[in-house]
């Protein structure tokens, strides 16, 4: 194997040269392949602080299902289409209406039409890992943890079928990071991301369904820092972090949410009801000055939406959703 030189511009010592002017993970496939097979990679002096860990991501070779190291990179339009719910019950979403293998087949039909704009579809299981509960439970947090062994078959099936998984947290009176750490073994995998659902984040003395929960950017950022650290430590491709929202008050100080290069941070508008109401929520949430710092997702509710949005209607939204889920 030959050596390779990785440089910003104009620096050359005779080895094969790859010019990189930004995120190394966005290099063309051929350039990444050259780097991964090189015996040694020499770094030019003008490259940025993130070069070393991004280089390790390339050399380690883990990719997002379907290819690539960035979730939503320029020139490779990716859209995730997901079944949402809990593995053990159909009452919390369509994911639980069948097992993992049948879920793979169902996603093929659910995703039909969402590639009409040329996007590459990444089928996804969005699994409720912690469930908001009516009672406090033994620990008093109004949230029930799902056993890892219940989730594991879905993660393994997704890996075998080149799919993605998002673990959704409904933490009640505890915090998001405490719950996320329970599922760290899964989040160290390249095909598993995380979702935070502020609707179910209670303040002390609140209970579910009497108040809509809220989360501040500071709490989200503790999860961001921890999850970004996992990506770096394990040389993983960019990982998806979703924050659900259907009211502005659900996320306070939203513009202060960190969006580091290790993560693709996406706000999912998960309101339900008439199309008129959903369009209004979409326009409100995507309108503030901070909206351009996030990717955006849309949610379809089979039973609560009147009528259900068609793929054509979803793809006509501005900004165009990059994540679409079905509950």
Structural class: alpha/beta
Count of DSSP H/I helices: 9
Which strand order spans the largest sheet, edge to edge or round the barrel?
Answer: 4-5-7-8-10-12-13-14
Low-confidence stretches: 9-14
Measured between the Cα atoms of the first and last residue, the distance is: 50 Å
Q: What's the total count of β strands?
A: 14
Residue share in β-strands: 15-25%
What general form does the structure show? globular
Helix content: 25-40%
Give me the Rg, rounded: 20 Å
Following the backbone from N to C, one meets helices and strands in this order, namely: EEHEHEHEEHEHHEEHEEEHEHE
| Largest β-sheet summary | 8 strands, parallel, barrel
Mean pLDDT, to the nearest integer, reads 91
Topology readout:
Blueprint: E1 4-7, E2 17-19, H1 29-37, E3 41-43, H2 51-60, E4 78-85, H3 100-110, E5 120-132, E6 143-145, H4 148-160, E7 164-169, H5 176-180, H6 184-187, E8 192-196, E9 215-216, H7 217-233, E10 239-245, E11 251-252, E12 263-269, H8 275-285, E13 295-300, H9 311-315, E14 323-326
Parallel strand pairs: 1-2, 1-3, 4-5, 4-14, 5-7, 7-8, 8-10, 9-11, 10-12, 12-13, 13-14
Antiparallel strand pairs: 5-6
Question: What does this protein structure show overall?
Answer:
There is one protein chain. The chain contains nine helices and 14 strands. The chain is an alpha/beta fold and 327 residues long. The strands form three sheets. Strands 4-5-7-8-10-12-13-14 form an eight-stranded parallel β-barrel, surrounded by four helices. β12 (263-269), α8 and β13 form a beta-alpha-beta unit. The longest helix is centred in the C-terminal third of the chain and has 17 residues, at 217-233. The N and C termini lie far apart (50 Å). Residues 9-14 have low confidence and may be disordered.
